[in-house]
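Handout, section B. The chain below has 326 residues.
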Amino acid sequence: MSPPLQLPRVTVVIATFNRPALLAQTLETVLAQDYPADLFQVWVVDNNSPPATRAVVESFRDRTPAPRWILETTQGVSHARNRAIREATTEIIAFADDDILAEKDWLRKLMLPFVQNTGKPIGAVGGTVLPVYPDGCPPWWRYTHPLKLTEQPAPLPVGEERKLMGASLAITAAALKQVGGFRVDLGRTGTRLLDAEEPELLERIRRAGYEIWFASDAVVQHQMVRSRLTWQWACRNAYDSARTRVIWRLRDQESGRAWPLYYLISRLILNAVAAPFWLLCGALVAVVGQRGLTVHFLVRACRSWGFVRQMIVMAVSRPKRGGRTT
């Protein structure tokens, strides 16, 4: 009979900004994990929210473990997460969003690859993030955000093609100490929906010699609330996502993977042509009442325009190379 697995000590970090109702639901599920209570702690990093957020955290003070409230006054999700990274003393830091609902065995399943692996060291493990729609889902949404599920019966190492999400992501303290935290120029801040801080960090961890694993059975549900199910939000998300990729690659000198000049010029020309083309396609399908396809083409136009605009901005301003992680 094999000895029981020695589960690691974990700090679960939830960065939040002004979503107390959703945060309460998240804490309810995270604190109900079947993980040993003496081996995990829950930190809520409040990124300048009104007092209601702290009140939600304090309402769980009688739970075990009781969540800790931390105020981070520098705005931005990367600042909030990096604050937790600096203060955490556990072997592993697990990140969750403030609008997720975690399955009861989520944390344990997310930790298992770290303790079962006997080969190359694991730097990070991501879990499955399933969208749910508490307010209902408009029919056109599937045109912009198709749900893609991959059957994977057991945790396995994955390459760059697997995009892990910060809503369910665990990283070892050793890897973070070696490569640093999240880049603050890539994470979301206020209404800016920049979103490349997670893949950029995972890329640095992979380059440092660690494996990245995906645990499909470590499941959280990501609540897509009504405010995010609008064509305006979908277009802004696509626009800022494209901008993020430009910022990332143009400043990514350390990795040696910065985009070459010929590629940048070709992409700039392609997207400058594509933006009005997708707008025209959207106008044509709108005439025949195809709202889903209309939003789809608008989103593609915004993504192309985001790339073009950020390329022009960075060419004019010529920012310093390299990204800050503090």
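Note. Residues 196 and 238 are 12 Å apart (CA to CA). Compare this with the example in section A.
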